[in-house]
């Protein structure tokens, strides 16, 4: 059977960034790059390394819409191929480097690799129902609101199956947006924003050069909620080391209680050799928490939490082992509903504290110091 669609599908590509939240559908979210890299690049624990410290760039609406249209063309061609072949299992076989380009994947040139990455992204997205889209990179809401509204609206027009559109955002950016701007984004189809809160402690925020205050975090978070946009925030246990552990936990809980986000996601601090904070560790000026110390810090925060959202441990960095040998906490993206499951989380922490620390160390993400 002749499949001219295989040749046509190789004509389309679009730009994708380096990262996206694990909770955004895994490989099942369509990835559309609205901005490039991070506009801040100064956080002591991150330092823009996921983006290779590349310069931040705003993409034009025309560029982004062209990418969306390319994804649409790929989606349409996949649909035709699937109908011609009589089923998705046959489509999987032909959407393979050896079939598409007559060579193994490791031998693909740059253009072919980009095309294949896009084909795989769209195929996985279609296969999962075509419901979720993530706008890359680190802070797409920094775009002028009318431009982002145009992009979100075009996504919804191009793909009527979309149910959720999400993006990373900085607290400071949300705090600067007006209520009308955020509501217009919500009305256009922006469903959820992911915010790296990291900590609610002002001393620690200054130490890590986060570029935001706890008051701005509260303002930005509340604005998002009031606009009807779901808020998923990330806290970083261990970020204050032994010196600021308690204040980090208690002030993070204070800020979270003020905001009452829909999701609170735990991302324990793991040293990155390419960051300024790593140098503090090497000099002995920052002492990492042990596995038990980190659990105790989380316990202090959880005890103080008075929220109605979900607390999630949906990443491998939540490295603690249970007595059965698996993960201590569920890594489900939906996490634990508070306040109903608050005691469940506290009980799990107690279980983890009764386990020998070396057991947790074996499954901990590690970086040589």
Structure, described:
There is one protein chain. This protein is an alpha/beta fold. Helix content is 44%, strand content 11%. It is built from 15 helices and ten strands. The chain has helices at 4-9, 61-85, 88-94, 97-100, 110-127, 145-158, 171-176, 179-188, 202-207, 214-226, 245-259, 276-282, 291-304, 342-353, 357-362, and strands at residues 30-33, 35-36, 57-58, 132-136, 164-168, 190-198, 230-235, 263-266, 310-312, 336-337. The strands form two sheets. An eight-stranded mixed beta sheet has the order 1-4-5-6-7-8-9-10. A two-stranded antiparallel ribbon has the order 2-3. Helix 11 links the parallel strand 7 and strand 8 (263-266). Helix 10 runs parallel beside helix 11 (245-259) and helix 13 (291-304) runs antiparallel to helix 14 (342-353).
């Amino acid at each position: 059977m002749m499949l001219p669609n295989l040749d046509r599908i190789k004509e389309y590509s679009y730009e994708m960034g380096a990262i996206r939240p694990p909770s955004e559908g895994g490989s099942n979210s369509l990835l559309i790059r609205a901005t490039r890299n991070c506009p801040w690049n100064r956080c002591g624990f991150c330092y823009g390394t996921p983006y290779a410290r590349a310069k931040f760039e705003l993409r034009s609406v025309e560029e982004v819409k062209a990418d969306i249209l390319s994804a649409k063309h790929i989606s349409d061609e996949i649909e035709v191929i699937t109908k011609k072949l009589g089923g998705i299992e046959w489509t999987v076989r032909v959407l393979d480097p050896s079939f598409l380009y007559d060579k193994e994947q490791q031998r693909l040139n740059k253009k072919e690799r980009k095309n294949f990455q896009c084909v795989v992204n769209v195929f996985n997205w279609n296969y999962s129902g075509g419901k979720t889209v993530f706008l890359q990179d680190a802070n797409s809401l920094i775009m002028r609101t009318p431009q982002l509204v145009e992009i979100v609206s075009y996504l919804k027009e191009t793909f009527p199956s979309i149910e959720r559109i999400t993006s990373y955002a900085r607290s400071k950016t949300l705090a600067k947006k007006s209520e009308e701007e955020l509501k217009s984004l919500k009305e256009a189809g922006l469903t959820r924003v992911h915010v790296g809160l990291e900590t609610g402690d002002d001393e620690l925020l200054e130490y890590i050069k986060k570029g935001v205050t706890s008051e701005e975090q509260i303002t930005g978070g509340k604005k998002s909620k009031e606009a009807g946009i779901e808020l998923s925030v990330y806290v970083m246990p261990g970020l204050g080391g032994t010196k600021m552990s308690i204040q980090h936990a208690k002030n993070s809980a204070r800020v979270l209680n003020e905001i009452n986000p829909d999701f609170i996601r735990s991302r324990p601090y793991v040293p990155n050799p390419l960051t300024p904070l790593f140098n503090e560790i090497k000099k002995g000026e920052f002492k990492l928490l042990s596995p038990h110390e980190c659990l105790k810090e989380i316990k202090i925060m959880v005890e103080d939490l008075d929220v109605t959202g979900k607390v999630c441990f949906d990443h491998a960095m939540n490295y603690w082992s249970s007595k059965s040998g698996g993960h201590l906490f569920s890594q489900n993206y939906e996490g634990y509903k508070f306040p109903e499951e608050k005691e469940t989380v506290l009980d799990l922490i107690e279980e983890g504290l009764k386990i020998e620390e070396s057991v947790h160390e074996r499954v901990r993400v590690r970086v040589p110091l």
